[in-house]
Amino acid sequence: MLDRFFQSNFFAKRFSLEKHPKFPMLVFLILTSIINFLLCETIYFRILYSADQLYSPLVILDAFTGKGITHWYFPPSPYFFPDLILMSVLYFFVPFLYLPTMYGVVQMGFVTLGIYWVLNEFLSKSQSLLFLFYLQTLIIIFSFLGVVLKDNPFPFVYFFTNAHHSTGFFFSFFLVSVLGFNLRKQNWGISGNKRNLILRLFFYWIGFSLLYLSDRYSFCIGFLCFMTVYYFEIRKKNYRRLPKLPGWKLNFLILMFLLLNELSFYGIKQTLQIPNSFGILLKSISDKSVDRILFLSYTYLFDGSKHLFYQNGSLLLLISFCLFTVSKFPFRIRILLLTLIPVLLLLLIVVGRFTYLHPYPIRYLFPIWFFCFLGLSWFFQTICNRFPISLIFASFALWILVLSSFPKPRQAVAESFLKVTKQEVSYDFEKPIRFWSEGKKEPIPIDNLGKPYRWITGAFHTP
């Protein structure tokens, strides 16, 4: 009976993918956008509207109200592209006080479309849609688990955040995927002449350069993903592999790319106030012995693992589930996970312990959770591949009803910051007060000693 039920489809005759290939995807995007909007307005609201998340909308506000941006103390990754570009576009169409929420909704919409486009190279449209259904459902379920298990912080909020590496990572991953497809098709002889390939590579160069100048962390992750897949692909014996480039050409291109973009970034730092990450890192480790560095690295990871164990139950469940199913993940995802885990842990130590001190910068590990979700979605799509479209839409409608019943803290949060009358406030208050007053209030951030705190702020219009 169940088998017959899952083979049936209420929309099979009226809205089949064969007759109306765009309709199910359009309905899917509308329903998931409503779900993601509600997630941003309920479970993830306080995080998305915290001081760490309001850098982008306030920079855009200053830029478009004539105040300029040269007075800003930018983060180490200034997130010019694609974060600030997307935020700039939304500024003209979305009420200012809803920018962080709508940014998360639009970002997830682009992620959904990008994954759908990539999957269509391997799967049918119905299989791709089913994969996206499992991905979205997993995000919802683990978001609920984060609330039930009282996670601190919520590890999956980075699907919706701006200026926290996630947008750059998504863009980087998409560029790498498209580049791989084009190189592979060129190798098969079905993607036009070399002139067209050179033109495409030029656009990839521009895209990766903009990303490098805006978010070097995301660029490095994308570059590492590409080189990992490339390394394994060129060893294939069949015609479907990526074309192998001569070693000296590849090394020359990489060196030229890094040199030109580092020179460009140096020029940008002469105009804008962006921290010198490498200088801070070298200063931090210059007076420490190798033994001391290793000891601090070990204790940092140990403390982070305790935080994960006691305060991130949903993440522990995700990792545990992946350990039992990883053998069913696609080969590329398994290889990327094996490569990224040690690299990202190393970056976690370098950035969180020796450059910009942070007790638990979990956002640097976000690519691991993302690939875990992709792997699990693939796993479910292969073992439960007869899920009717009508039930997909019905389950999303049910999630919308459930999320609609959640408390919405928007008004309470806005009122709590607007009633603050002090001119000198802590870092946690400065940007939220500016945001909720839409720039009318301009408090000054200070540290514990009462001195000006110049960390990612536009409050100081003079040096």
Automatic annotation (TrEMBL):
Keywords: Membrane, Transmembrane, Transmembrane helix. It comes from the Bacteria. The chain crosses the membrane at residues 23-47, 79-98, 131-149, 156-181, 201-229, 250-268, 308-326, 335-356, 362-380, 387-406. This is Glycosyltransferase RgtA/B/C/D-like domain-containing protein. It comes from Leptospira yanagawae. The lineage of its organism: Bacteria, Pseudomonadati, Spirochaetota, Spirochaetia, Leptospirales.
